[in-house]
Amino acid sequence: MHAFTLLERKGLNTVQTRGPFHQNLHDAIYHVAEAHFRACWKVVGRVDKLEGLRSESPEQLQELAREIVDKLASSQAVDAIDLQPEDRRDQTLRNSILWNRDVLRYIDLYEATRTGDVGIMEATLPHLAFRFAGGRNSNYLTEILELLQCLQHDWPPTLCDFVRRRCWLVNMTGCPRNFLPLDKRQEYNIKSLKVTDRVQGPNASWDLLKARSPAIPMLQAVRKHLEKQFRSLWRGVSHFRV
């Protein structure tokens, strides 16, 4: 919470806040994770500044990365602290290791989603199941368990392959790192139907909306093209890290 306050992330300083703060939360997680792992590199590399690692070979950097995961971002590292006498446990270090371990799972799943790596997404399902069980999110837990049951036991291989390839992600641009979960893509469609390209005027009706819906992707492409040509004021759809 203190990190969110320092980063001035609106609505994240209390769990009671309600509202669409997903992007703020996502950016804050990435920023805090970057700060944590920068510190980890300095610890395992025994340097005061990251520039001191430039002389290391790729093999040495890879070994340091493994050491970071093993000693500062793993369940084994947490267990090692828990085995110590209670009066000797470093609770601050333990909390940092927990954060590092959990945030790596988050980043791994997010990057897999963006790049279309359904294999990593499927491998993450058991970890999500344990997380939802621990957080008492019973509905999400049930969905994950049912999906695992179907993928591993109930469905034939052809159906499993179809679900992985056609039912989890969609890429409307054909460009790398532009994959979206289907439910998020559908939210964009709903926004276009109800807000951006909604039908207006005295002739607005469900029939007109139905007739116009197939043309919405083309209308969006034309609008973006005109905005680029005339450089009119517009709000972007991408979030850049600064």
TrEMBL record:
Residues 1-239 form the DUF6589 domain. It comes from Paxillus involutus ATCC 200175. This is DUF6589 domain-containing protein.
